[in-house]
Specification:
The complex is a heterodimer of chains A (314) and B (330). Chain A contains 14 helices and no strands. With 314 residues, chain A is mainly alpha-helical. Classes of the chains: A mainly alpha (314), B alpha/beta (330).
Amino acid sequence: MSSLSTNPEPSRLSKAWNSNMAYSFRRNPVAVVSLAIFLIITVMSLLSPLIAPFDPYDPAQIDIMNSEYPPIWVDGSDAQFMLGTDDQGRDLWSTILYGTRLSLLIGLCAVGLQAFLGISIGLISGYVGGRVDSLLMRLADIQLSFSTLMVAIIFLAVTQAMFGSETFNQYAVYFLIAVIGVAEWPQYARTVRATVLAEKKKEYVDSARVLGFGPLRIMVRHILPNSLSPIFVISTVQVANAIISEASLSFLGLGMPPSQPSLGSLISSGFDYIFSGSWWITAIPGVVLVVLVLVINLLGDWMRDILNPKLYKG
Amino acid sequence: MSLLSVRDLSVKFAMRDQTVTALNHISFDLAKGERLGIVGESGAGKSITGFALMNLLSRPGFIDSGSIHFEGEDIVQMSEAQMRTIRGNRMAMIFQDPMVTLNPVLTIGQQMVETLQAHRKLSKAEAEQIAIVKLREVYIPSPEERLGQYPHELSGGMRQRIIIAIALLLDPELIIADEPTTALDVTIQADIMELLLELCQSNKVGLILITHDLGVVSQMTERTLVMYAGRIIEAGRTREIINDPQHPYTQGLINALPQQTLPGQRLKQIPGNMPGLDAVPVGCPFAPRCQFAVDHCRTTLPELVRYGDVEVACHEVNRLHETRTEDQSA
């Protein structure tokens, strides 16, 4: 018995390792594999300048004579190019690495923007209530009644026409982040508002008000940390969505330019050659995109199950 | 000068199609370091009084008229920013259920340090020192370790002690305790009440104890207000009210205590229910349930008037008192 009270304080790391969430994670092979794949893709894409044999952004390393080499397991390949080359003679493996990095960057930043906008608006809407709430939620309704892609297509087409494709291509990353970020904030705002409405009725909020805390502090420090679980869940789904949106826009020619391809623009540039036999330019980045989005969604699913006490299986 | 002086305070709730009155011209005073009990059944307006004193009524409730002078300043007229310097700092509140009053995602230390830093310029280390002193005052064992713990790691009684410690952090002049022990089991209730009493006495802190437990009121407080349907119907020294209640409602409350009944007997409950706020009768609000009510009671509202050592809102108080004395002498 005495060992109970004399146990040393467990370290933060071991606490996290023994937590409920980590335990259920270890017990769930799908989640483990998904996280592993996601980490591999992320790390490799982040290290792409080190791993990639070629730099797809450097015109000096691209030779048009190398175009459309198939992957090495197909006849007529060149040993230099593991996954073959695209129509401009870029090494597909290197381009995919760089492209994945761009797609992830755009996805994460866009979700960051969405989360920032949505959480702030949702917190204010839920906490202040009344007219402010109605106004903000009607705005969200209006925003939701346009599909994300439609808003994005109109916005990007207009900006492209306004700035000319030269300038547009230069800042395409920022435009994409902005448009995907702004178009999807209501997802966050609605979820956050709903949790805030539930949380603000709880007595700890009354007690915070009684202690003389201001509304901003109560919202950010007291209510927000108690509303994090749904935010985590939508964040994972939203990252996957944002990556898909970016790919679709790039596929439509409204996203990343061919000189700086993301996964979507790579798929799009290969699409013209798919019937002339060069299937790999579209297929391989396509597979990467599908796998990436799939593992993120699987992780999101697992997290939703874990963070939802109603589905808690003990 | 009194610490708190409430005059003609009325609180209303703006409902969809009507405005109902939750507090009706309440007036009372509290001296420095005095302990006041507010009793009444559910819905009598006890908790509303507590929130009104903090000026924290949330919609649709609002203070309709009256004044609350806290150390000479009228709280009702204060801006939200001024009010915030008073809340937690000079006036603290303790709620019913310690299980939900602490923020579940912050450690005890974080919550205490945050409270201190919100009102005073202190470093984290200084604030933690004060927190440890206060935790020791409420008899929390090994307070240094508690600072790193989350509320769910502690028992209910422990949490309520911590809540009391948080209330005392900034040495307030007034603590409003809204049924502080209802959610705790009986043995812990007694401990917590004793602790609260001791702390209020040693620190000269005023206490407003909102409860429906007359036993607790008689042990803890010097004066008592009995509320019914948003009005004060009897007010005076606790001892007088408990020993010789004048208002039929107060008498009913005391007779309904289990101690007043022999084992095996039914409890002497007051028949009927308190009227809803939207259907308060014209005359005395207690008249429909009062066995002594006469016609006059049903038409005219009795004022709170001095009767002997207490104040009572009952038309028939003289007659009732005489009948009682006759009964006793007979």
